[in-house]
């Protein structure tokens, strides 16, 4: 068997789901391949599947086990779903990090916040300059997206060239950041691209994407028309949008206030790395009370309904003493990410109850997407002319549809969800292996496996309640005292107004009294008896089978 | 102070939220008013706010306390958000139930399932016939909606006429059920309508609504084009849609299979009450394996991603042994209700992974809404010519926008969210009082108040985990044994790989050992000491402050 070098692609996260992007490229003989990892993103938890969890990220187990062969971690851009896990996972990876200047600054902040050394981040130059990382020569190609300095990656290897798009849109007037340059993509294609690994987010959007510049007019009109205070929320990292909104307000004689740590930090980051050319003067919220509402504009974090963000605070108790009033206008210059509809809806209604006029993204005038739509993707394929298209950054159905799009133009489209190892060595990409992938949860301070059962236990308590039974037994197995039950998360009285804890205690007492002495000398047997008694009694009383914890105290006396 | 009779409107549920509709009309002198209650609906729980809960409904406390003056419960139509709570709440209300024939049958089924007597339901005739209920004369006016026999209510009182629309759309070709008849609404208006209490669901939809008949063509084309099996899901109660889908399949030579109890029941109900004129022959799923997939069509429950419904089963392990295959088509002939996007998305991707072609409602060809859009609402206002418009059935922002719409045409628009008592006696409606409203949870078998804390306790356990500490003390306050901790829903090892339960036990031991004897003789003091020790230790180890339950056993002697 030959062991010729192989060029491989493997999604550890982000292919078959939205979020937590993590893609691994390998080159070399099997068993001695060298690797680069592209992006280390997170996704956000919810009560539905991950209550109490702080962040969700791809499990880097596959590459962590081969960390000695990892030559670099490359970050395409500074969105959380691409960089958010860096600080948490770096200890398992221990490789230098490469990113362009703005992204590098945020990567450094991530590392610092997680107690890691920010100096491991190296600032990469923009294409056509390249950096050599192991057997890979990588160029960071400026593309437009909803954050400055987003980059596609040209990855040159002895087995050929890969173009990894990262997140992109074809915006020739992005206002802040680099415009889309079709000539650049065409020239990259001129040298022959073996595989285009391509963003699939908007593959179901049938029309060409719109430019960031398209919303300037509507925003200006809104600022001019509004009589009272105008507040706008969007993603903190969408610096172009922040500037558009603030500039339009400023032009109408409104003072600009920026609420929320993340937005202020992002504006600072923009200045520090020269991606933000200018921004209107900013006034502190403490001074806002002194300004007539018609002369005031506020930018606020929390467009997704995040409970602690400035928007949620403004919608309820106010932000640092500042409250909204009848006649104010609140603009959601953002898209609601699926899953956040209820949180956002709650805020829309809280605002409505205060007499605030709410404008959301439903008519599309105040927001444009950061991703390439279906015809835009076709244009990318056409410019780059790759032999193979490997859709990434999408749910499974997005990958399938994007691969179909590629095939409809005579290219090979490969659906490779997380864990599929794609061999790119030959002319035709093919899936040659399937490795195990998974998710890690940052749960408070601890990284746990999504399948460890910790969160499942919490969900079971949330659905069924928790009964704790304390049993006191003598050494010989006789009961030293009546059993005692505590109920948490169950009603106090059940069917027929019966007291639940008391009825459970009676049921346990009866079960243990009726059991053989020998059984009661065995903890496992006692537990089983108690659990069964609790389950039956609770089911009858409240219609639930609660999680049960049994504490057995024995006196050897 | 005079005590002239007053005509009042009070939403107990459904105004300021979508779902759990419950509206109360009163007539008579204050303190001796007689009442009718319109609708007793539910809404569905989620992990986010109501984990483990089975159904959410409006708290009928206000009218339950005056049940002796409740003359009737009127059900406008058989959707869950209008009739779903009937069986659970009837014991607190004890009044006769009125509905038209199809609705009455479902109301009876609801009562029976909850162990109540179905005979308390009286079948009401259609307008222009009326029924006398206390001081109210009520007519059930046929309107079109996404379920047969939906009714608006003409409520005539000595103080004037109210038109309560229920849910409606202006569909002149609904295929099953009664078409929208503008002349009927105009003639109701001819006699003078004091208040139009009106559906607000689609007030933000700017174009005229489309007819159920509009989807026949696209569905027929889809059935003709599809090579393999076609499965479609929609709401079980949308009998017109079930028939359209099944008929189109049948016309293309496909055998029709109906999966899921709810759909089969609804078709039976349709026949039993003569609202469903015909339906193609139905084949049992057991016989489906013998039929070529291109000659097969299945209707499946679960369009909202419900975990146990036929759609979810087909998307995962199969339904009663029947599995989907590459080349099959799955149609969502339905809208995803906000909050269900993730559950539905999960199913779309499971289907995609099996090679199934998925068609959702995103291009609007295979689904139409059951509610009147903004210009339709304008048309209703114009036909009825009410003095006052009271928007109902909507979130707060829907009510506000609908009231503005009314005002823009010179009518009085009153935003009256749940709890606002609206006086309709005079020419101009006005809010005269605010009463307490709330929600009840059906939690297993028990109805609990949403604010009782039971569900909050469960959510706290889901977010923070649960630590149980057992403390054994002698009568004099000395420790009889070292304390013992059980952790549920927390990782076993925390920061620095330290064992969490053991570290918590040590912390509790230290706290109790360092405490005064006198303190340890007081259970409340011991609890406080233990809780504080657990919280501090857990926060350090895992970054969470868990729910803590302390079990204290004392030996006297």
From TrEMBL, chains A, B:
DNA-binding recorded as keyword: no
Occurrences of domain Metallo-beta-lactamase (ranges): 19-219
GO molecular function, one term: exonuclease activity
Domain of life: Bacteria
Keywords, in A-Z order: Exonuclease, Hydrolase, Metal-binding, Nuclease, RNA-binding, Zinc
InterPro entries in alphabetical order: Metallo-B-lactamas, RibonucZ/Hydroxyglut_hydro, RMMBL, RNase_J_2, RNase_J_b_CASP, RNase_J_C
This protein's name: MBL fold metallo-hydrolase
